[in-house]
Design goal:
One of its GO terms (cellular component) is cytoplasm. By secondary structure, this protein is of the alpha/beta class. It has three helices and eight strands. The two termini are about 25 Å apart.
């Protein structure tokens, strides 16, 4: 699941357990960045609902040129964000937006119109 462009792909649709992304495809949880995206497999970094999104989860977004990052907390806001993740993003002066998934998609798609943005999206709980 990758794209060839340097723009950030748009989220086309969202429903419980399913996201469709232009040029990327369909997945349950998605990691998006300038130039493409892929399924977000929490097992890669040991992510869990608590403490939540880990610094290792956002590294790929930053490495791929994201100037802003959107962190989805799940459809019901049950996914946390580890304080170390916020510290990392603050230390790198990266603009961060955190919201429940539907709002996170709106924020991400708006930012993706004008700038390189990355996002982590959890489409359930």
């Amino acid at each position: 699941m990758t794209g060839a462009e340097t723009t950030s792909p748009r989220v086309l649709s969202l429903s419980w357990g399913r996201m469709e992304v232009a040029g990327v495809g369909t997945a349950k949880d998605v990691k998006l960045f300038p130039g493409g995206g892929r399924s977000w497999d929490w097992n890669e970094t040991g992510t869990a609902h608590d403490p939540g999104i880990l610094p290792a989860d956002v590294e790929e977004l930053l490495d791929r040129g994201a100037e802003a990052v959107v962190l989805s907390r799940g459809m019901h806001g049950r996914l946390g964000v580890d304080p170390r993740t916020r510290d990392l993003l603050d230390a790198r002066s990266v603009e961060v937006h955190t919201a429940e998934t539907e709002e996170a998609v709106r924020i991400y798609n708006g930012l993706a119109r004008n700038r390189p943005v990355g996002g982590l999206f959890h489409s359930t709980c």
